[in-house]
Write a structure and sequence with these properties.
This protein is an alpha+beta fold and about 200 residues long. It has five helices and five strands.
C-alpha cells in the first residue's frame, strides 16, 4: 500500500470521526453566537432549606460529595469555597442545571438553590463542558472532545498532503493556506491582547 493510499484512508476516517462532533459543535455554538435570534425564557429557580446531619470530615471534597449524594445534586462540582462569614459554598453544574448549596457556620442546615435553564442555554452548556475527573460520563465526553480535536488536526495535515500530491499548480493553494493561517494567528493575537 502506497503512502498516498494510507493518507487518503486516514483523511477519510478522520473526516468520519469528526463529522458528528463538528455538527454538534455547530448546533450548540450557533445559539451562542446568535443568542438574540432564539426565544430565551427565564430560567426556573427553586430554593429549599434542608436539615443537615453531616458528621464526616470538614474538608471541602468530602462535604461536597456528601451534599451531592444526600440531596441528589447531580452535575460536576465547579466550586468549593469558604465565605467571609464562615459558611461553605458548593456549586454543581451540568448542561441545563445548576445547584448552589450554602452551609452556614453552624453546619446544621443547607440552603440549596437550583436553576433549570431553557433549551437554548442547555445547548450552550454542552458547548462549554470541559475537563476530566467528574464522573464517567464527563470523562467520556472529554475523551470524545480530545478524539475530535486530534481528528481535526489529522484531517488538516492529511488534506494538505493530498492537496500537495494531487495539484500541479499550487499557487492558489499556498495563498489559501497562508491566508487561513494568517487569519487564525491575527485572531488569536487580537483576542489575547486587544483592549
Amino acid at each position: 500500500m502506497s503512502i498516498y493510499t494510507v493518507f487518503r484512508k486516514v483523511h477519510l476516517y478522520a473526516a468520519l470521526a469528526i463529522m458528528a462532533f463538528v455538527i454538534m459543535y455547530f448546533v450548540t455554538g450557533y445559539p451562542m453566537i446568535h443568542h438574540d435570534w432564539f426565544p430565551s425564557p427565564e430560567a426556573v429557580k427553586r430554593t429549599r432549606t434542608e436539615p443537615l446531619t453531616y458528621t464526616g470530615p470538614r474538608e471541602p471534597a468530602a462535604y461536597s460529595m456528601y451534599l451531592q449524594e444526600t440531596f441528589d445534586l447531580r452535575g460536576k462540582p465547579t466550586r468549593q469555597r469558604r465565605l467571609g462569614d464562615g459558611s461553605w459554598e458548593f456549586r454543581f453544574s451540568r448542561p441545563g442545571t445548576f445547584h448552589e448549596a450554602v452551609v452556614p457556620p453552624a453546619g446544621d442546615s443547607v440552603k440549596i438553590t437550583t436553576r433549570e435553564e431553557n433549551a437554548i442555554d442547555t445547548m450552550i452548556g454542552f458547548h462549554r463542558l470541559r475537563g476530566y475527573d467528574s464522573g464517567m460520563l464527563y470523562d467520556v465526553w472529554a475523551l470524545l472532545y480530545d478524539f475530535a480535536s486530534l481528528s481535526l488536526i489529522v484531517f488538516a495535515f492529511t488534506g494538505i498532503y493530498l492537496w500537495y500530491r494531487l495539484t500541479k499548480k499550487k499557487l492558489l493553494g499556498w495563498i489559501c493556506l497562508g491566508v487561513s493561517y494568517g487569519y487564525a494567528a491575527v485572531t488569536i493575537l487580537y483576542l489575547m491582547y486587544a483592549p
